Amino acid sequence: MWIICGILSVIFCIVGWIMSFKKHRKAIWASVCSLTFVSLTLLAEYRLVLDWVNKQDWSALLDAVPSMFPILTGYVIIMLIANILPIVAVKNKKTDN
């Protein structure tokens, strides 16, 4: 599930960038959808780890969590920056008119 949410967040981010370049006002909605799927991705990852803890699968936790944290941190930072830029571009377009 987390893979699907992650892919959807990237797709909405790309759509937001394309709409931003075309000066479309609804680019903000694509960015909001992308950020929503970023949060759903994090929640799905947390749920996965919670299931491992409930099953007491410590080897899965020891294998996955140390490498998962920096990857998810980078993913969130990149997606936040990538989604803030189209929002700012659309807001600047509105103030120019």
Give an overview of the whole structure.
Helix 1 runs antiparallel to helix 2 and helix 2 runs antiparallel to helix 3. It is elongated and about 55 Å long. It is 90% helix and 0% strand. It starts with a helix and ends with a helix. The chain is built from 3 helices and no strands. The chain is mostly helical and 97 residues long.
* Rg calculated over all Cα atoms: 17 Å
Distance between the termini: 42 Å
Shape: elongated
Determine the mean pLDDT: 89
Helix content: over 70%
Tell me the β content. Answer: under 5%
Order of helices and strands: HHH
Q: List segments where confidence is low: pLDDT < 50 over at least 5 consecutive residues.
A: none
Give a summary of the structure in a few sentences.
With about 100 residues, the chain is an all-alpha fold. The chain is built from three helices and no strands.
Descriptors:
97 residues, mainly alpha
Blueprint of the fold:
Elements (H helix, E strand, L loop, with lengths): L1 H20 L5 H28 L3 H39 L1
Helix pairs in contact: 1-2, 1-3, 2-3
